[in-house]
């Protein structure tokens, strides 16, 4: 459960200026804060990913604010067009302040 | 008044429904409207926003949603029948190939989902659509 693993699907190569679809998934329970513990009847505290940012060569390419109504293991799909080769960095920020990240190289021709 | 057997069944069913189906707290329409106004700075006009979703979602725990609006800098998603209306907001940049994104959301019950788009020129648009939910996603 505490094993939080980000996964992204990014093409290794792309043509300059052409749309590239990026798919991301991170394993995370997205505890909404609405659920009750079956045994004690107490609310399970909220713990979600509240922010997702994708940067390319240091510049923000796409971001998202997440609320508890996003499903567990949040899936986010978006598209970008790139002018030059570089590194896309993905960051997910947890309610507890942890940041999970992953980087992918993209060759742009 | 003579009570027929049919009346009795109807009454019993009504009582059972009232007693057993306790609705959880939902975001009401006022909360949805407040969230739209806070994001858009007023009530946006309808149209110009694509809101792709299944008509019937079998599992409310994970309902695929796609939103798009040409020229939008951000798009917010709201769920009118969840405990809180906020779902998420996408922010697009000059690097976005188009203002389109997908995710998976939780829906507690059959309800209207709203997408509000903010355009680069400051104007706002919205779309609204009902999604029927077979199993609610507010588990616990």
Description:
Chain A is mostly beta strands and 109 residues long. Chain A has strands spanning 6-9, 13-14, 19-26, 49-56, 59-66, 75-81, 86-94, 99-108. Chain A has one domain: Sandwich (Immunoglobulin-like), CATH 2.60.40.10. Chain A contains no helices and eight strands. Chain A has a five-stranded mixed beta sheet, with no helix packed on it. Chain A has a three-stranded antiparallel beta sheet with strand order 1-3-6, with no helix packed on it. Chain B is of the alpha+beta class and 140 residues long. Chain B has a single domain, classed as Immunoglobulin-like (Sandwich), CATH 2.60.40. Chain B has helices spanning 5-20, 29-40, and strands spanning 45-46, 50-52, 56-59, 63-68, 72-79, 86-92, 96-105, 111-119, 124-135. In chain B, the strands form two sheets. In chain B, strands 1, 3, 5, 6, 8 and 9 form a six-stranded mixed beta sheet that branches. Chain B has a three-stranded antiparallel beta sheet with strand order 2-4-7, with no helix packed on it. Chain B is elongated and about 70 Å long.
Task: List key phrases describing it.
heterodimer, A: 109 residues, mainly beta, Immunoglobulin-like, 5-stranded mixed β-sheet, 8 strands, 0% helix, elongated, B: 140 residues, alpha+beta, 6-stranded mixed β-sheet
Cα shape of chain A: elongated
Total tally of structural domains of chain B? 1
Helix content of chain A: under 10%
Structural class of chain A: mainly beta
Mean pLDDT of chain A: 95
The CATH class of chain A: Mainly Beta
Based on CA atoms alone, the radius of gyration of chain A comes out at 16 Å
* Main β-sheet description of chain B: 6 strands, mixed
Structural class of chain B: alpha+beta
Largest interface: A-B, 33 and 31 residues
Number of discrete domains of chain A: 1
Cα Rg of chain B: 19 Å
Mean pLDDT of chain B: 87
Largest sheet of chain A: 5 strands, mixed
The CATH H-level superfamily of chain A is Immunoglobulins
Order of helices and strands of chain B: HHEEEEEEEEE
**What is the CATH architecture descriptor of chain A?**
Sandwich
Fraction of residues of chain B in helices?
10-25%
**E-strand count of chain B:** 9
């Amino acid at each position: 459960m505490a094993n939080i693993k980000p996964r992204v699907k990014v093409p290794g190569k792309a043509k300059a200026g052409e749309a590239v679809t990026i798919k991301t998934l991170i394993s995370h329970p997205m505890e909404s804060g609405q659920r009750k513990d079956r045994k004690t009847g107490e609310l399970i505290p909220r713990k979600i990913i509240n922010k997702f940012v994708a940067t390319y060569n240091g510049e923000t390419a796409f971001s998202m604010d997440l609320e508890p109504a996003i499903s567990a293991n949040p899936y986010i799909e978006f598209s970008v067009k790139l002018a030059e080769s570089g590194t896309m960095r993905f960051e997910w920020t947890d309610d507890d302040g942890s940041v999970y990240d992953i980087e992918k190289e993209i060759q742009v021709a | 008044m003579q009570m027929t057997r049919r009346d009795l069944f109807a009454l019993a069913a009504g009582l059972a429904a009232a007693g057993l189906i306790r609705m959880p707290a939902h975001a009401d329409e006022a909360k949805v409207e407040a969230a739209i106004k806070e994001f858009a700075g007023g009530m946006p006009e309808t149209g110009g926003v694509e809101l792709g979703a299944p008509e019937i979602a079998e599992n409310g725990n994970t309902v695929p949603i796609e939103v798009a609006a040409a020229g939008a800098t951000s798009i917010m998603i709201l769920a009118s029948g969840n405990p809180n209306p906020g779902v998420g907001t996408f922010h697009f940049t000059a690097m976005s190939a188009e203002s389109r994104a997908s995710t998976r959301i939780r829906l507690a019950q059959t309800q209207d989902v709203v997408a509000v788009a903010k355009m680069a020129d400051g104007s706002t648009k919205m779309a609204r659509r009902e999604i029927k939910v077979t199993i609610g996603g507010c588990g616990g």
